[in-house]
Design goal:
mainly beta
Amino acid sequence: MTQAGDFGATGDGQTDDTEALQHAIDEGIGELLLPRGDYRITRSLIVDLARVGRTSIRGESGTARILMRGSGPAILLKGTHTTSAAPNGFRDSEWTHERMPMISQLEIVGEHAEADGIRIEGVMQPTVTGVLLRKLRHGIHLTGRARNVLISHCHIYHNTGVGVFLDGLNLHQTIISASHISYCRLGGIRIERSEIRNLQITGNDIEYNNNGGHKVPDADGVPTAEIWLDASEGSIREGTICSNTIQATYSPNGANIRIIGQPQEKNAKVGMLAITGNLIGSQWNNIHMTAAQGVTITGNSIYSGHNRNMLIEECSQIVMGDNCFGHNADYGVERELCTGVTLRKCRDSIFSGNILQDCLSGRHLYPEAPELQREALLELYECSNIILSNNQILDSAPYGIRLADCTDITLATTIVSDRRTPPLQKSAVFWTGATGQSIVNACRFAGCLDTPFVAESIAVKSASLPE
């Protein structure tokens, strides 16, 4: 282990320590320790692993800071890996020189508008732990190619770009865990133009990643998300978003989780994903998916979507089960609402075992938000082969369930009830247009101002269905 001071770095916050730190890295010393201090640099510290060999950069128990006063990444990890993660895909030189570079226990602060924290290119098994990244553009930027990435126990805070940005990347086996990712203006975790497999996002606190904490003029309308998976170019498969707190404040067209695929008739290019056991709340849309295939959304608590709790468009093979859609009661009924679920042009999917309870229909926490446009807590438009079963739809208005031009629907063992006095719900179910071979069975509808069930034609009506 060699200390930064051995190569002339002062850590006084004033001296340009770039040359001293780069000299230490180029010497191939292995672990570079930065004792307590502020290390000012004016250009990227390049860790060329093929040349310098196995390298670790570590701060002394979190007491060291790197002040990046130039553009680009403060630290660039650069490798030569170009194949898969299979054992026969590695050259001996990658094991002897490049494997598992580590950055740990230090803070990187941006002091330039285009300063980034850490960039990773062509690296196998990069490991980033216990790092604070703030006032940068992007916290961690992965591009090109990488394999087996570990990011854990980090604080990625108040950056003008993206917290963890997977951009133009071919990457398999990624774990982002046990980290705080918050107040990053363009998103918490964001994927664009990439080929991604085996993505695990688990145990994080990901919140407030929009312009609200930055107040950049005329930037409120730029869409953001805490987690943004965009496969409109490339593909994203085999991933989990589990056991996270994913929260925000309202931003126009924002989402807590946004998933974007490609047209179904071609190949959705995004799917085989599980969204499970998360707390998701307080955005324009909590979950917004377009053209995805094969996603399970189960066991989440989802609240305060100021447009929709879930907006699912042109998707197939979506399983939505055992979720609780509601509001945060601690904030009072005057401030929170549950706006429900909309499926549009979806097929071959299941919505089962969910609870949707509205709080105060038609009222927004944010007066600047557009007026709520909603016909029901559960809406299906131009959908086919959907099972709706074992759900509770409570205290909605003007309808509990709205279906339009939906075919081959099974609506079973579902309660739709308005328990307010007087009720605001006109009808429990309002169904218009084509219905195909749809079935309604063993449902209970209550608390309606008008006829509980309004439909033009349904193939089967159960005897228990109110007339």
